[in-house]
Amino acid sequence: MATKTVINPDLGTGFKYFEGSGVNELIHSAGVVVDTSEVTFVSCSGKTATNDQGETVEERDTIVGVGDIKEQTSQVLRNLQGTLRAAGATFDDVVRMRVFVTQPFTDLDFGKVHEARAPFFNKEHYPASTLVIVYALARPDALIEIDCDAAILKNGG
Question: Distance between CA 106 and CA 112 in Å, rounded?
């Protein structure tokens, strides 16, 4: 039998970013864990470069590294790392990433994104990955958003 657990269903509570939108709470969570007898699947919602580790709501509602794709990428990965950790996973368990970046996106930006990713991944565990250039993201100062899926194999698999 499988079980489903939601990670941080109160995500975004108190964020001023939503003021005037009519949205009082986000209708999504940081992630979802589906646990079976053989595999634990973890799906992490897309993260931007907010300071998820901040002590106050204001800190957690603020984009860091404005204008700096490398710093934003590092922050996004730290945010995903926190969600993965809450599920008992690491980047070694990530099997799929989707990366969304805003225009204009240059070859230099591509290099900076990969430079920022390098410390988080071991070559033996590189995930499948897609990069999509989009017109804009939900937060005006966000240059990048990443989501990911992980699979934790049980019984030595």
Answer: 10
| Number of other CB atoms surrounding residue 79 within 10 Å | 23
Q: Cβ(132)–Cβ(99) under 8 Å?
A: yes
Q: How many CB atoms lie within 10 A of CB 117?
A: 21
Decide: 37 and 76 in contact? Cβ < 8 Å.
no
Residues of the chain with pLDDT under 70: 12, 14-15, 17-18, 156-157
Q: Where are the alpha helices (DSSP H) in the chain?
A: 57-60, 69-86, 107-117
Contact 7, 32 (CB under 8 A): yes
Please tell me the distance from the alpha carbon of residue 55 to that of residue 68, in angstroms, as a whole number. Answer: 23
- Give the span between the Cα atoms of 116 and 91, in whole angstroms: 14
What is the structure's pLDDT at 29?
A: 83
* pLDDT at 18 (0 to 100): 65
pLDDT score at 31: 92
Rounded to whole angstroms, the Cα distance separating 33 from 141 reads: 30
- Contact by Cβ (8 Å): 102, 147: no
pLDDT value for 107? 97
